[in-house]
From TrEMBL:
Signal peptide bounds: 1-19
Cellular component GO terms, alphabetical: outer membrane-bounded periplasmic space
Domain of life: Bacteria
Record keywords: Calcium, Metal-binding, Periplasm, Signal, Sugar transport, Transport
Name of the protein: D-galactose/methyl-galactoside binding periplasmic protein MglB
Residue ranges of the TM segments: none
Keyword Calcium attributed: yes
Matching Pfam families: Peripla_BP_4
PROSITE patterns (UniProt xref): PROKAR_LIPOPROTEIN (PS51257)
Length: 345
C-alpha cells in the first residue's frame, strides 16, 4: 500500500509536467465503480489516434475492457519521444499491465527495460518489435498480424484481377506496370507488404514492372493523394495498377484518379485497379462503388479483443493466454490475427 501511495504521488508530479509539454490526454474506458480502484488498470500507448485502422483496434480494446478494467490511454501523435514520456508516467502510476503500440518498433528495447524493471507485464501490438527484444522479458508478448501474409494476399489478388480482366493490360505488353505506395521507409510491416506483394504476383506468373520510385507516404491519405497526382502528371496512361500498404493511402490514390476522371464508379469510366490493406469502411465503400478493386482485411476488432483478453489475464497474475482460444506461433511469444482478402463479393 505504501508503495502504491508513493507511486501515485510521483505520478501526480509527472502528469503535470507531461501536460505542460502537450503529452496527450488520458481516456477512461470505465466510469463509476470502475474508478474506485477495485478494477485493474490497463495502460495503453497508441502510436497515433488518427490512424484509421488503429482507431478500430483502440475502440475494440476499450469496449472489451469496459466494466472489467480502468483504462489509461495516451496518443503518441507519431512521436517516439512523446510516447517515451507517456510510458514513464504510466509506470510511475503503477498500472497493472501495459499495452504498447510502438511509434518506432526499433525503440521497443527501452520499453522492455523500463517495464521489466517495474515488473509490469507488457503486450506489444500491431507494430512488431524484434523477437529477441520481446523474448528478453518473460512478461512480454506480441499480438498482431504476419505482414508477409498481407503482401502475399495482395499478390494473389493481382493475379486474379489480371486473369479476369485482360483489359487492365493497357499497352498489351503482357506486363503489369504498377506504382507502389509504402507506409514508412523503415517499418518492418511496410517493407514486408511492399516486398511480398510483388514477389507473390511474380511467383503467380505475372511480369511486374514498377513505374517510378516507391512512394513513401507514412500511411497518410492526403500525402498519398498528392504523390499520386504527381505520378499521374508524369505517367498518365503508363500506370496499370496501384498497390498500397494500407487503405488510407489507397483511398488517397482513388481520390487523385477520380479528379482526372478515372475510378469514378460511373459505367464506362476509365479504371485503374487499386489494392490496399485493412478493409476500412472507406475502402469497403470505395469497392462497393466500383472505385477500388480490393483490399486485405486486417481485423482490428479481433485484435482489440485479443489484446483485452491477454491484458486482463496479465493484470490478474495469470499467463497471457490462460483460458483463451489464442495460441502462440512458433516464436513462442506472438499471437497472429489472420488476414483475409476482401473484394466485396
Amino acid at each position: 500500500m505504501k508503495k502504491k501511495f508513493l507511486a501515485m504521488l510521483m505520478a501526480s508530479v509527472m502528469v503535470l509536467g507531461l501536460a505542460a509539454c502537450g503529452g496527450g490526454s488520458s481516456d477512461a474506458a470505465t466510469e463509476g465503480d470502475a474508478a474506485s480502484g477495485d478494477l485493474p488498470t490497463v495502460g495503453v500507448l497508441i502510436y497515433k489516434y488518427d490512424d484509421t485502422y488503429i482507431s478500430t483496434v483502440r475502440n475494440s480494446l476499450q469496449a472489451a475492457l469496459e466494466g472489467k478494467a480502468n483504462v489509461e490511454m495516451q496518443d503518441g501523435k507519431g512521436d517516439q519521444a512523446t510516447q517515451n514520456d507517456q510510458l514513464d508516467v504510466m509506470i510511475s502510476k503503477g498500472v497493472d499491465v501495459l499495452c504498447v503500440n510502438m511509434v518506432d518498433a526499433k525503440a521497443a528495447s527501452g520499453v522492455v527495460e523500463k517495464a521489466s524493471a517495474a515488473g509490469i507485464p507488457t503486450i506489444f501490438f500491431n507494430r512488431e518489435p524484434d523477437t529477441e527484444v520481446i523474448k528478453s522479458y518473460d512478461k512480454a508478448c506480441f499480438i498482431g498480424t504476419n505482414a508477409i501474409d498481407a503482401g502475399k494476399m495482395q499478390g494473389d489478388i493481382i493475379k486474379e484481377l489480371w486473369d479476369a480482366h485482360p483489359e487492365y493490360d493497357l499497352n498489351g505488353d503482357g506486363k503489369v506496370q504498377y506504382v507502389m505506395f509504402q507506409g514508412e521507409p523503415d517499418n518492418p510491416e511496410a517493407i514486408a507488404r511492399t516486398q511480398y506483394s510483388v514477389e507473390q504476383a511474380t511467383a503467380n506468373g505475372l511480369t511486374m514492372e514498377q513505374v517510378g520510385e516507391t512512394q513513401v507516404c507514412n500511411w497518410d491519405t492526403e500525402t498519398a493523394q498528392k504523390a499520386m497526382e504527381a505520378m499521374l502528371a508524369a505517367n498518365e496512361g503508363k500506370i496499370e495498377l496501384v498497390i498500397a500498404n494500407n487503405d488510407g493511402m489507397a483511398i488517397g490514390c482513388v481520390a487523385a484518379l477520380s479528379n482526372i476522371g478515372y475510378n469514378t464508379g460511373a459505367e464506362g469510366a476509365p479504371f485503374i485497379p487499386v489494392i490496399g490493406v485493412d478493409a476500412t469502411d472507406a475502402a469497403k465503400d470505395a469497392i462497393a462503388k466500383g472505385q477500388m478493386s480490393a483490399t486485405v482485411l486486417q481485423d482490428g476488432d479481433a485484435m482489440g479483443k485479443a489484446i483485452a483478453a491477454a491484458a486482463l489475464n496479465a493484470a490478474s497474475g495469470a499467463e497471457f493466454l490462460d483460458g483463451t482460444e489464442y495460441t502462440y506461433d512458433d516464436t513462442g511469444i506472438a499471437v497472429r490475427i489472420p488476414y483475409a482478402p476482401y473484394t466485396g463479393e
